[in-house]
Structures are given as structure tokens and as C-alpha cells.
Amino acid sequence: MTKRRTLMLASGGLAFAAAARAQGAWPEKPVRLIIGYPAGGPTDFGGRLLQDPLGRLWGQALVIENRPGASQVIASEAVARSAPDGYTLFLAASTHASNAAVYARLPYDTVADFTPIVNLYASPTVLFVGRNSPYRTAQELLAAARRDTGGMAFASSGNGSSGHFALEMFRRKVGIEVTHVAFRGAAPALQEVVAGRVPATFSTLSGAIGLVRDGNLRPLAIGGPQRAEVLAGVPTLEELGMGIPDTSPWYGFLGPKGLPRPIVDRVANDVLGLLRDPAIGRRIVDAGGVILAEGPEPFEARIRRELAENAVIAREAGIRVE
């Protein structure tokens, strides 16, 4: 019994020492940040924004590795299979919490195989029409949709995207029939709306902000819980009595399961500190973002909550990705 207790104490001491070394020495080499989308998109934006500031704080380079494909499933799997040593991090978008609802099978567990670290910001989902659309308000669009017995067409960036989920929630909330037109990405979906070939879309503000500023897209309502600073005059669907659960994509840091808490705290605290920097905050807001600054526990709670909500919507709407 004494020998067993000695071994247990020794094991606990080694674990404590390892954690202490991780906290004190990490990072001792460059840190890899995997992003599941191509360079230039809203997820990549967050990584590039923090790349140099975090590199200066850590005294080591933060190396961004874009691994696009399959709604970031490829990137997620790579992170899930990586060593929990803090040298592979994941800048995930919120499709991480919806993929489980739309894919029949994933090569990882969305919760058990990852360690939530810090959630950076969200990009509000917005109801848009084109510049030449006859609809000036969400109420006008809704009235026209109710008259359209064939189901008004709405574009999205893809089956199972945040815009698709927003559309399904909106359809159920206001009691209309719609025709969902899925595109391969936000850019072609938005261009069809700008051209007037599809009447409307739910899309992220960060992905559409340039078209809004150029006058090519008209925002009718914010799908998130609050107004966006860069669209201060645009009401929320909640204000209009059409409120839906928030589908606004978020962008946050995850690690593989088993990431030592000292490293989690170090990354979270450093990122939260940078988000308080007025210059960094202004760049996020100007790009159409809303700063969330959620630490590990609130971030994990958000993921679990969205997993449950998305499963219900996907099942009721029959949203599946083959």
C-alpha cells in the first residue's frame, strides 16, 4: 500500500512539474495556427490580425497554415490528431459547432477531442437584398415572400452554412415558404443577389462589408442579438418582432484535447489582452465584427449550446451535407 501511494505521489509530482514547465517555458519554438479556410476570408482575418502581436508576446513566430476544405473538417481533424503540447492551435469558425449536425459522420468528436481556449469575435448574420431591389425594409420583403406562392428564392453560401441555418430559422419564425439556392461560397451567392437574380440572402457582415460600402448590397436587418456599429441604422430582427436564435459565425482558438491548463490560460490571457487594444478592436469592428472576448469556460458553453440548437434545426429542416 505504501509503495502504491509513493508511486501515485511521484506520478502526481511529475504531472505538476510538467505543467509548471509548460507554463514557464512555452513556447520554445514556433507555434502553428491551423485555419480551415483559404487566406483572405473572415477566419483568416483574425489569424493575420493577431499573428505578429502574439509572436512578439511569445518571442516565437506564429505560423499560419491554411488547410481549406469540407467546411473545415480537414483542419479540425488535423488539430484533433495533433499533440497537446501547445505547438498546434486551431482558429476555428462556428461551422465547427454545426458540422456535427449536418455531416453523417465526422472523424473526431466536436467536444471531446478539443480544448476551447478563447473566442475572439463574431460576424453578424444580416438579411441582404441587392442595390436595385424594390424592398427597402424587412417588412416589405416579408410581405412579398408571403405573396409568393412558389416560395421566394434566398441564396446562401452553401448547404449547412450559417446563412442556411438563419434562413431556416427565419422561415419557421415568420411562417413563409422559401426556395433555398445554395452556392459554393459567399462570393457567388452575394453576386447573384447584387445582380438581382436571387432576391435575398442571409450572409455574414464581414464577408459582405465591401459590397455594402460600395452601395451594391442593402442590409435590411441584423440576425444577431444586437445592432452592428458599422450598420448603426439597421434594426435587428428581434426589434422587428422576427427574432431568431443567433446564427452569427464566431471565430475562436481551440487546441487538441488534453492541452495543459497553463498553456490554455497563457494563450487566452494574451489574446484577451490584445482584444482590449483599441487599434485591434477598431480593425475588427471596421471589418464588420463584434468582439466577444470569451474565455475557456464561456466558449465551451457556447459550443455545447450551439451543438444542441443546430441539431434540432438540421433535423427539422432536413439539412444534410453528403
From TrEMBL:
Classification via InterPro entries: BUG, Bug_dom1
The UniProt similarity line reads: Belongs to the UPF0065 (bug) family.
Which positions carry the signal peptide feature in this UniProt record?
A: 1-22
Q: Which domain of life is it from?
A: Bacteria
**Name of the featured protein:** Tripartite tricarboxylate transporter substrate binding protein
Q: Which residues form a coiled coil?
A: none
Pfam families (UniProt xref): TctC
Which keywords accompany this UniProt record? Signal
